[in-house]
Give the backbone structure.
Amino acid sequence: MAMTITEKILANSAGKDSVKPGDNIWLNVDVLMTHDVCGPPTIGIWKKEFGEEAKIWDKNKLVIFPDHYIFTANKHANRNVDILREFAAEYNVDNYYDVGTERYKGVCHIALAEEGYDIPGTVLIGTDSHTCTSGVRLVYSLPVLEIPMRLLFLVQAKSGRKCLSQ
């Protein structure tokens, strides 16, 4: 039986000839996206679980867009953007689109397309419930808002610690 476009994308990402519903597969994720709502708690958990010496496995796959709390004077909301900024600097994350700079792009889902991250046939995981909007460009895009820590497991720390996530 022929595969759907989703099955084809997942099979390609998993390095398999085919996949079908019910298969358990490991994906080679192309893009991991987070923002100022889920990024800070994700970063906090990542540092706690993997330690201060942990490294991001592939920084080119991680994209960070502040886009929710950027128009407020609330110091707690602004702290979220500060955490993203500090993390991007500490780990030399090139794909950080900071507020108030020429690189800033606005809403993350539009920015993903405009900056060339939404490539047909690829896999994108993001910590926003609207991440699935990249699917319109034939990207398998999975939101993990309800469990932002999953993003950490996909980033893969070089700490050598194993983690279980389904």
About this structure: Helices lie at 5-14, 39-50, 75-90, 108-114, 149-155.
